[in-house]
Here is the input.
Amino acid sequence: MPEIITLLNCITPIIETTTQKRLQIIIQALLSMRGRITMLGLSRWSEKGGSYKTITRFFDSTIDWGAINWLFIQTHLTKMKGSVYLLGGDEVVVSKSGKHSYGLDRFYSSLQNQVIKSLAFLNLSLISVENRKSYPLSTKQIIKPNKEGCVKDKTPTKSQKKKSKGKRGRPKGSSNKDKKNVELSPYLKFVQDAIKEALTRINKHIDIVYFVFDGAFGNNSATQMVKQCGLDIISKLQKNSALSFPNEKKYSGIGSPKKYGDNIDYKNIPEKYLKSTVIEEDKNITTKIYQMKMLHRTFADPLNIVIIQKINTKIGSSAHVTLFSSDLELEYDKIVDYYSLRFQIEFVFRDAKQYWGMEDFMNIKKKPIENWANLSTFMVNFSHGLRNNSSMKEMSVLDLKAHYHGLKYVKEVFKLLPEFANEYLIKKVSAQIANLGAIHSSLKVA
Here is the structure.
C-alpha cells in the first residue's frame, strides 16, 4: 500500500530505518484488522516481516513520538501562514485490570463518573481554529506519588486535613506571599515540562499564543505556570467563584487604597457588560454573554472574564458558565470559540480508543505502554493524513478501515490466482471489495 510509505517518508530523518519499516507494517495491520487490537492481533494481520517477535521489538524500542507527531503534522496537516493554532491539553483515562501494569492506580473516569482502576495519560494537541480539528503532539503517562515518577498530586484525605489544621487566623509574624512567585506542584511541573518540550519544536514554525485546558486549571498556580511558558491561558472557573469588580471609589486618604470593589451577583450582572443576546423562542431559552475585567482574591493578576448565562424564560431558572483568560485584551467571542475548540481533544481520545487500540493493549512494562499510547494517538494524525487524499476526503475512520480491510482480503484471494490474471480485473475487483461495509465509497474503477 504505497500511500502508507509515502506519508511516512517525512519522518525518515528522525527514525531508524528498521523501526520505520516495522511501523509501516503495524500501520497496515491496524488499518486492516478487526476486533481487539493487541500485539498478537497485529501479528496475525501483518504482512511478511510482521511476526510477533518483530512487533514486540518495535514496542520495546525507544521512539521520539513528539518529534514524529510534529514532523508529520508540519508536513501533511498544517498551513504555516495565515492560520491560527492553539495548544490544548487534557487527560485521558484507560481502564486496566491486573496488578502489575506500570503506573496502575485509581483515577477518576468522566465517562463512568467514578474512580476506576486505570492508567492515565496527559495529551497535548495542536488545535487548528480554521479546520476545527485537534492534532496530537505528545502523550505522556501520569504517575501518582506512591509510584516512581511522582507527578500526579494526591487529594488529601479528611484525616490529613484535620491534622494540618492549626489555630484560626493568620500566623503571627507572617508576611504577604507573592502570588506570581508560586511553588509549582509536581503535577504542574510535569505539565510545564511537556508544554516547554512542545513549544521548543513548534515555535520555530508556528506562533502559539494561547494554552487551553479545562476547569482543572482554573486557579492561580496553573495560570502562573502557563505564563512562565510564555503563553496566555484560557480556562474555566468554578461557577460560584467569588469575583470582584475593581474598586472605583475615590481614595479617602485613610489606610491603604482598596483594591477590591463589589462582589459579582451572577443573577444580576450589570447590563453595561452585556456583549451578546441570543433568543431561541422554540426552546424558551435566552443566552446572554457578558465580558468584564475582574479580580479574584487568589489570583495574582486581573482576569478577562466571560460569563455565558442561559435563562429559561418559561420557568425563570438560569445557569451560567464562567470562562477566563489571562489576556485582558482578547475579545469575548474568541474566548468562547477557543475554549469550545478544546473539546476536539475528546475526539482524539475517542478515535484512539475505538479504532487504534488505546483501550485494548495488554502490555505491562513502562516503555511498551508509552509506545502503545503514543502509537494510538499518532494513528489519529495518520488517518487525517490519509483522508487528505482527494479520493478519501469524505471517508470516516470506519470507512477507512473498511476500505483497507477489503483490500486485505482481495490481496489474499489474488495470491491464489494464476500469474496471468488481468491487471484491469484486479483493480476493478479491489475497488469493489474495498467498498464493502463502507458508508462513503472510496476508489472507483470505471
Notes: The radius of gyration is 26 Å.
